[in-house]
Amino acid sequence: MASVLRHSSRLGIRATCLALPRSRNAYATAAPYFNNEPSQPSVMTSIPGPVSKKAIEELDSVFDTRSLNVICDYEKSVGNYLADMDGNLCIALNSNPYSQIASIPVGYNNPHLIATMSSKEAVNTLVNRPALGNFPPGYWASLLKTGILAVAPKGLDQVFTAMAGSDAIETSYKAAFIYRRRIERGEGVSFTPQEIESVMKNQTPGSPELAIMSFKKAFHGRLFGSLSTTRSKPVHKLDIPSFNWPHASFPQLKYPLEENIQANKMEEERCLAEVEDVINSWYCPIAAVVVEPIQSEGGDNHASPAFFQGLRELTQREGILFIVDEVQTGVGATGKFWAHEHWNLKSPPDMVTFSKKAQTAGYYFGNPMLRPNLPYRQFNTWMGDPARAILFRAIIQEIVRHDLVKNTAETGDYLYRELEKLSSKFPERIQNLRGKNRGTFIAFDTPERDAFLKKMKTFGINIGGSGETAVRLRPMLVFQKHHG
């Protein structure tokens, strides 16, 4: 990236403020993970180019292409680089599209993943896809223990597997509601005839008035329950009926953090007080509070460990479940395997959702009462995908073998330090730099953001945005200093 960005006169909106200085010792700390990676991006045509435009036209006749970024050539993609149909090679500094919306952790065409998914075990699950709730394979328990559960957050030793991030969130909400009514009803108490009759009419008491609480600018998915807690962009929610569920303010911190300690402390205390007030004043009981460790789509908004510690203490005091949505932040992206590890909580969250870089999905939990008291209450045909669980296990093996969480922490520290220097030099262009000590989950605000992002793509460098003015970095775990 730096070799391209050095051409400052060619970028009319000062995109060169992101050029990270090279030095003789800058990249001497680690060998590359992909020896066949290109040395730099290569852009030979417009993006999209003529071949891609023709492919888009063909696709558009049968599929909605309005959100399309690139028509990809996955066979020619490698490591941190994605090839398109015109032969352009772009490097991924962001999630969308070049890291498949932050879901590619260990590089394109990773040899270990290819070998794993070519194995007899993987082929068997693909051809004979099990309906896990009814017909799980004999190796399912072993696969969970050696894969998904091998990296379970501390204190959470069970998992409900799912198909995608929104599905994981949706089922975690169901678990919260079932748990709430189970506690209220009393263990061993059967459903009443009134509950059984009324629920078929979507009426109380069988269909109770309960809520999930989220935060302003949150993003938790696009299904009906998850969408009712998503508050990042109107386009996601317009015309869709939603549940009347509450939200509270997420801290809007001032930067640099070191110069705004007292103001930020007051802001977080204000938000916690608002959460407590909403819990105590909402028209119906709140079964759970859901929160992202970093509000990703809503503008890359951060909060301190103290805020999340306070939130955990508040939910425990009020008898409300605490769901941490790690769909975007999980699997090493913040310099720890799970972002909430940065918080040093006295007790773990009640549920932690995951997807994206895991290549599978679900939620972790520890309390056995979160397992429904009857079968088929938390159920669908597939209940996840063993092939994707096999892939996640292989991803975990790569992460451990190459110590990629440590790499992400070190690479993120390097990128943050260099951006911090540039923000001092170009304060009007790099504002509110955030993500210190959070791996490569780094962002800043800049004027003319969209024009800047568009210009960068012409150099084969994908840097994306979130919120209204934020520029965010979302590289893979195999992104190293020499890529910067």
From TrEMBL:
<dbReference type="InterPro" id="IPR015424">
    <property type="entry name" value="PyrdxlP-dep_Trfase"/>
</dbReference>
<dbReference type="InterPro" id="IPR015422">
    <property type="entry name" value="PyrdxlP-dep_Trfase_small"/>
</dbReference>
<dbReference type="InterPro" id="IPR004631">
    <property type="entry name" value="4NH2But_aminotransferase_euk"/>
</dbReference>
<dbReference type="GO" id="GO:0034386">
    <property type="term" value="F:4-aminobutyrate:2-oxoglutarate transaminase activity"/>
</dbReference>
<keyword id="KW-0032">Aminotransferase</keyword>
<protein>
    <recommendedName>
        <fullName>4-aminobutyrate aminotransferase</fullName>
        <ecNumber>2.6.1.19</ecNumber>
    </recommendedName>
</protein>
<keyword id="KW-0808">Transferase</keyword>
<dbReference type="GO" id="GO:0009450">
    <property type="term" value="P:gamma-aminobutyric acid catabolic process"/>
</dbReference>
<dbReference type="Pfam" id="PF00202">
    <property type="entry name" value="Aminotran_3"/>
</dbReference>
<dbReference type="GO" id="GO:0005739">
    <property type="term" value="C:mitochondrion"/>
</dbReference>
<comment type="similarity">
    <text>Belongs to the class-III pyridoxal-phosphate-dependent aminotransferase family.</text>
</comment>
<dbReference type="GO" id="GO:0030170">
    <property type="term" value="F:pyridoxal phosphate binding"/>
</dbReference>
<dbReference type="InterPro" id="IPR015421">
    <property type="entry name" value="PyrdxlP-dep_Trfase_major"/>
</dbReference>
<keyword id="KW-0663">Pyridoxal phosphate</keyword>
<dbReference type="InterPro" id="IPR049704">
    <property type="entry name" value="Aminotrans_3_PPA_site"/>
</dbReference>
<dbReference type="InterPro" id="IPR005814">
    <property type="entry name" value="Aminotrans_3"/>
</dbReference>
